[in-house]
Amino acid sequence: MLPLEYDRSQDRDIIVRDRFDGCRREFLRTLVTPEVIEEHRRSPLGQHSERLERLLIYFRQRPLDERYAVRAIEPFRRYQVVKLSGRRGVPPRVIDTGIYTSANEARHGLFLRCIRDLLET
Amino acid sequence: MAQIKIFGYADKISAKPGDTIQFHVSADGTSTAEAHLVRLIHGDEHPHGPGFIEEEIDCVANGTWQVEKQFTQVGAFLEVTDPNRKLALDSSITLCAFIWPTWPDVGHRQCLLGRWDNDKNHGYGLGINPSGRLEFWVGCGNEIDYLQAELPLQKQAWYFVAATFDARSGRATLYQEGVVNRYNSLLSKVAPVDYRSHVSEVFRFRQNNLVDTPFLVAGSRDWHALRGHFVSQLYCGKIDRCGVFDRPLGREELDAIRAGGQPPSYGMVAYWDTTKGYTDHGIGDVVVDIGPNRLDANGYNRPVRAQTGYNWNGRNDCFRLAPHEYGGIEFHADAMIDSNWKVTKTFELPEILRSGAYAMRLRAGDGKGLAEEYIVFFVRPRVPTGRIALLFSTATYIAYANERFATDGQIVQPMAGQPPTISEVDIEIYENPEFGGGCYDSHADGAGICYSSYRRPLVNMRPKYRISAFDLPWNFPADLSILAWLEHKGYDYDVLTDEDVHLEGVAAMAPYACILNSTHPEYHSERMLNAHEDYIAGGGRFICMGANSFCCNVAFRDDEPWIMECRKTGGHWIAWAARPGEYYLATTGQMGGIWTGFQRWGQKLVGNTFAGEGFAHSQPYRRMPDSYDPALAWITEGIEGEIIGDFGLGNGGAAGIEIDCYKLGFGTPPNTKIIASSGGHPDNYIAHDEEGAHAHQGFSGTHNYILRADMVYFEAPNNGAVFATGSIAFGSALPINGFENNVSQLLSNVVNAFVKPGPLPGSSNRPRENIGRFERVDP
């Protein structure tokens, strides 16, 4: 059980959300395998295995300030991964210097970041 | 040196050769731009297609334009017309209003009403201070005296508030009482919240009124060295009946107004009865003063009317039933309807211009990225010249104008089945509220945006643009693939816009043997929907090229067709939801939302409509048995095999993105045939079933056959006919392989048959007289 001091904000929903999130992440970590990562690399979009779909649905539902996006530097040629601010009017920020030559490569780079965040927290 | 940026808009979205058109341009980092009129032919830069194609057109306006930085007044407010300065009250005063603040703790001062100069500190005002408390202030230039309430205002709660000032004694008093009932506010009476505050203080001096300060509601006058006068201290929330008196009203008098009584006439300078002016067909921007001086107020950036007031009691859901309960006028600090920039260039369009999609291309500096602008407009012929018309969905373009849902929408990534792909211009409009949002966005205070217009830069109504949420050309740039196909095939065609159909009705459509619409014909006013129905029933032949067709109900005023009203309600696929009691369009008095709510499902018009959407992956169609019926074999003539459209610039298939299906129970004409159908879409395609069923597992692509694009065909009276693709991705499949593919072949078969006079191939219809039949002019 989380201590009462955990969160003093007025919105108690956040506490429940975070508790649900903790359980969900614990399970989702068990789904991360080299096969799942390879499946995403081959095809970032479209129908996936249930393992991969569950991971992707979770990543797409993160709070906006924890989500990543692809930035098209030059469409069809140069892309990078950025992180959304979650604050209206504040632009996404560049988080590394990696440049991808297709949108799908960037989507996979973004996916690997999400996997890393999941496994490291 | 500042980065060069250039943006603009035209005063018209639809014009004819010889018409005068105005361009409004703003630029950073440059004082000149190279302008060239271009005809747009293809807008999708996907490497598997023909790429971007434009044709430069000779025009007197081509050349170097002088451009400058222009400023935009953001925010909705009322400005009172007061030529005799009746409101320049230098002595005693009372200000009062019913208010429903949506963002009292925004952190900066919001002016509710007053004659206040925020730059010079002259005048008086009643507002909400940075700590979220009601505040009254007077200023005489050097100094300001303030009086604030004891506790912060609650958001989304109705209050009656007032400030009185007795000039003789210098005593200022604040009056703040909640008027929360069981329906009108966020909280009920079980919440132990204190709404009341009454404070008083003696001010040191009296206000001084400058000559030219306007009396404003929901903002106050400000000044900037570069832009001159503008309005700041913008308020977020609703204001119901409000007034000004030239004496301090007593507590009992204020109590009586709070209780719903008439305000006293003694000492009344102005009293804006926000419930006056409603008709059965809506209400405009003028707010009526019932006081002795008739100081009416005018809305700027279209404050939202037809909103519930302080006395709304839940029984009536529309202003038509109880206008006295609809005194709420809603203001948003980031409302933006019209940039109102100075005109940069005016000229007459060349008389020899052929009908088409055009843009004034502007380039400055290296002409790349934000240093290039395409200001798009459409040109109709003076007299219809073609047998075919391509109808551009300008209402849908306005609905999606400058959308930011990739960055602000929680639901977008799960819907889209992918992370957003954001471009430089997306970031530009995200950082700058001057561009305004569209009907898919919400104001910063949380309310949905219900007004959108084309009199401002529309960065997504441009060639080459890809929507960030889905990484696809969306609406206009995708629709150019249909135009490019008509060009490639050598058809004689004219273009039309939704605006033409709204303003002229079926007369705009009647001259054409065959009309194709766009990839995403989603938004329609009642007049537009009626025109389509009359065109088809009268013998017109209509090809519905896209999906999510004829779903949403919107409204335009005749005198301002560039502004569209959209209230989101009904269905479970809306970007935001209108609040209870606020479903009706202030523009027409009709309920907003989806046409499903009126028993006018899209199926009744074109045989199919919204099944669902998914965005990340498209599928091919498979031919259905009807396609092998000898009477219908002409539709698939020349196509081998069962699969149609296993390719496309829209995620690799002709069926996808958003998809429409046949449904007899929703009015698909009973003689409709399904020529081909898709299926097996990924599970991020979710069914948008409107049958009222509970949401449940199995409503997604691989589980449910309803997730499909149906390619349908039916004959209508008087040799009319409809062919509908049921897919947004259909149009983006046309350019594959140099426009030589089975989707292109199929569409050619249909267009060729539709443009021929007389019965359709294999027709079971015999021509018959119909009083609704229109006269078609053969070109």
Protein traits:
heterodimer, A: 121 residues, alpha+beta, 3-stranded antiparallel beta sheet, 45% helix, 12% strand, flat, B: 779 residues, mainly beta, 9-stranded mixed beta sheet, 8-stranded antiparallel beta sheet, 12 helices, 12% helix, globular
Account of the 3D structure:
The complex is a heterodimer of chains A (121) and B (779). In chain A, 45% of the residues lie in helices and 12% in strands. Chain A is flat, with a radius of gyration of 16 Å. Chain A has helices at 13-29, 34-42, 50-60, 103-120, and strands at 68-74, 78-83, 93-94. Helix content of chain B is 12%, strand content 30%. Chain B has twelve helices and 44 strands. In chain B, the strands form eight sheets. Chain B has a nine-stranded mixed β-sheet, sandwiched between helices. In chain B, helix 7 crosses helix 9. At the A-B interface, helix 3, strand 1 and helix 4 of A face helix 3, strand 29 and helix 5 of B.
Describe what is shown at a glance.
The complex is a heterodimer of chains A (121) and B (779). By secondary structure, chain A is of the alpha+beta class.
